[in-house]
Every structure is written in C-alpha cells, then in structure tokens.
Design brief:
Number of helices: 11
Largest sheet: 6 strands, mixed
Oligomer: single chain
Bound molecules: alpha-D-galactopyranose
Structural class: alpha+beta
Strand content: 15-25%
Distance between the termini: 15 Å
CATH architecture of the largest domain: 2-Layer Sandwich
CATH topology of the largest domain: Ribosomal Protein S5, domain 2
Number of strands: 13
Strand order of the largest sheet: 5-4-6-3-1-13
Length: 393
C-alpha cells in the first residue's frame, strides 16, 4: 500500500480526519553472512530491505493501544496500565512488549490507534518481528520526545535495543541484536558490518556488479524454532564456559581459530564442540567476506556463503530438508555463485547471489525442482537494500 492508501485505510478503520495521522516504517533484513554469531559476541553482515513494516498512527488521550493489521481481521486492544495481560496475544504482543521496555526506562507511552501494513512474510526469516518492534519503538519515542520538547533525533541504536529487550523479556525469545540493529540502522545500497561484542559497525557499499541478491522462502511452517534457538544459545554458553577455564576470552565469537583448535577439546561434549566450531569459523568467514568484497572478488564471496550454509547444516544443525533442498537446487543453476540460509534457520529463507541475466531462469528452475521434491512451492522476493527505521513524511 502506498502512503495515501494506508492513510485512507486508517480512516476507514479508526475514523476521524487525516491531519493527525502519521506514518512510520522499519524494514526487514537479509543477513548475507555471519549466522548465529550475534549472541556470541561475533560478526554479522546484514542489510535492511525495502520491504518491511509500515504503520499509520494517531495518538490517543488514554493508555489504550488499538492495533490493526491490513492483513488480519479485527482490532486488538491492549491497556498499557496492565501490560502483563497481553503476553499471549496472537498478534500485538511485540508492540506491548516495546511499550513495557520503554516505560521501564521512564519513557511515558500514551495510547495510540495503529494500522500496520507489513509486506514481509510472517515468521519467514526476514525479521518481520524486528520490523514491527523498531517501527513501534520509533512511534512511541518520537511522540514522547515531542511532548517533552526533546529536539535530538531519536537514537536508533537504542530503538534496536528496545526491540531486542521486548522480544527477550516480553515474548520469550532470547534473540541477539542483529535483526533489530539492521532494521533500525540500515542504509540504502549498503550492508552493515556489525561487531556484536560492542555494537561498533561500518556501512559497506554492496558492490556486486552484474549480480543480484535473490531471496527465496521455503514456505515451511516454523514450528519449534524458538525453543531450538534458545537451545543452541545455551549450548554455546556451555562451550564458552569450558573454554574460559583455559583461556580468557569473553565471547565465543572473538576466539581466533588457532586458539580454538588448540583448546577445543576442553569443551568435552561432541555436539557442543560442533556448535562452537561453527561460531568461531563463521566469524572468520565474515571477515574474509568483507575482504573479498573490497577486492571485488564476488566469486570468493559466494564460496564463503556456501561454506556458511554447509556449516549451519553439518555443525550447527539448524537447516532441515526444506532449506537444504532450496540451497542445493539454487546452487545447481548456472550463474548462482553462492546460496545459504539466512536468519535463525529451521525454515524461513535462503539468500543467493545470482548473475543478473539468469535471475528469471533461476526462479523458474528452482521453483520447479523444489516443488517436485518438497511438495509445495517456494516464494521469491526481489528487494533492494533500503533504509532503516524512519518517519515517512
Ligand atoms: C534470529 C535472531 C538473530 C540471530 C539470527 C541467527 O534472526 O533474531 O538475533 O541470532 O537468528 O543469526
């Protein structure tokens, strides 16, 4: 929906006039490489997309959030005087969680009428939740700052942290910072090289002349993803605790590969050694990827993406038949120089680098072959790299 349509729909749903309706947006993300490294203090390399969450809002004089999504029936209401009642909402709990975290920091959140228009696949691995969290945090904070006469621009890294806190404390997913950071801080045509141990970052222009980023969705229902995600996290924490008995590294993601090799047996447990091996080498691959891009070596970048997926499949074990089939079928197509899962895994999306003149063939062939093996079709997204959270004026 464009801006005018969204405002019109807002008036249809909530009534009133257009003057006091404003629109905010925050995008989804695709991670090019560096998976399951963020909560290990390692490196990630995500980019914001042009698709994401758009929200039309009007402030209310009470403490009620009235929330509607363009693709969902009915209005969800939450009273911010009693926010703990809404943790199990089928939709709307991210928004309440964001309000709760801001209020903990002394930021007053008023009621709002809010109409969300989200063009990301829900639970599809492109961070639809982070897009909702960051856009919502931006709405609440913008109105609060204005009410207090605060003129400074909203601190977008803080918005990312609020989104992550909402997801962890309110929604029970112990996620890292990558998704919210990319949604808040993305920049058109750039990828974010983020060091998760201290949130230092660089915007790297994506130079892959002659190639396109193609995102494909397995369309698998995610199921137990959240509990498995939390399980991987604690396996990493256990591995680190053992390594810390013989080294003094604060995070798994900062351990050099040679130090890791010399000490990994102290971890003791085969599975945890595999998890830690993935993390340590994945961080190394992120550094090599940036070097490859700097050297205009797209082919090397693609090889590193392939190695990343193989490690997520064999060592971290977060792929599954749908993601592996999609990646295998993608790599078979001429002109596809790298393909891997992106996001948490267990379903969701892959990201591939495909020669521009082969994109249509790629989509047609991968769709045919994936469907023949899995029994239902994948979907494709062609999105440019866009800007992070902002008000749309
Ligand atoms: C999810 C989490 C991120 C990150 C990825 C895996 O998207 O929200 O914090 O851990 O999985 O890289």
């Amino acid at each position: 929906m464009d801006k005018q349509q969204l405002i019109k729909e807002f008036i249809n749903v909530f009534g009133g006039s257009e003057e006091d309706v404003r629109i905010f947006a925050s995008p989804g993300r695709v991670n090019l490489i560096g998976e399951h490294t963020d909560y290990n203090g390692g490196f990630v390399f995500p980019a914001a997309l042009t698709i994401g969450a758009f929200v039309a809002v009007r402030k209310r004089e009470d403490k009620i959030l009235r929330m509607k999504a363009t693709d969902l029936e009915g209005i969800v209401e939450a009273n911010l005087e009693t926010p703990d009642e809404y943790k199990d909402l089928f939709w709307g709990n991210y928004q309440v969680g964001v309000a709760v975290e801001l209020m903990k920091d002394g930021i007053e959140v008023s009621g709002f009428d809010m109409l969300y228009d989200d063009n990301l696949p829900h639970g599809g691995g492109l961070s639809s939740s982070a897009a909702i969290e960051v856009s919502t945090a931006l709405v609440f904070t913008t109105y609060y700052n204005e009410s207090k006469g605060i003129k400074d621009p909203v601190d977008m890294i803080y918005m990312a942290k609020i989104g992550q806190r909402a997801e962890r404390n309110y929604c029970g997913v112990n996620c890292g910072i990558m998704d919210q950071f990319a949604s808040a801080m993305g920049k058109e045509d750039h990828v974010i090289f983020l060091d998760c141990k201290d949130l230092s970052y660089k915007l790297v222009p994506l130079k892959i002349d002659g190639y396109k980023i193609v995102i494909a969705n397995t369309n698998k229902k995610r199921g137990l993803a959240d509990s498995k995600y939390n399980e991987r996290r604690s396996e990493c924490e256990d591995a680190l605790a053992k390594l810390q008995t013989v080294t003094d590294y604060e995070y798994l993601g900062v351990i050099p590969t040679d130090v890791f090799e010399a000490n990994k047996n102290v971890i003791g447990d085969e599975i945890k050694i595999k998890r830690a091996t993935h993390v340590v080498y994945e961080c190394d691959r992120v550094l090599k990827s940036i070097e490859a891009l700097n050297n205009n070596d797209v082919l090397e970048f693609g090889r590193l993406m392939n190695a990343s997926h193989d490690s997520l499949r064999d060592l971290y074990e977060v792929t599954g038949i749908e993601l592996d089939t999609l990646v295998d079928e993608s790599r078979k197509i001429e002109g596809c120089i790298g393909s891997r899962m992106t996001g948490a895994g267990f379903g969701g999306c892959t990201v591939s680098i495909v020669r521009e003149d082969m994109v249509d063939t790629f989509k047609a062939e991968v769709e045919k072959n994936y469907t023949a093996k899995i029994g239902y079709a994948p979907s494709f997204y062609v999105s440019d790299l866009g800007d992070g959270g902002r008000e749309i004026k």
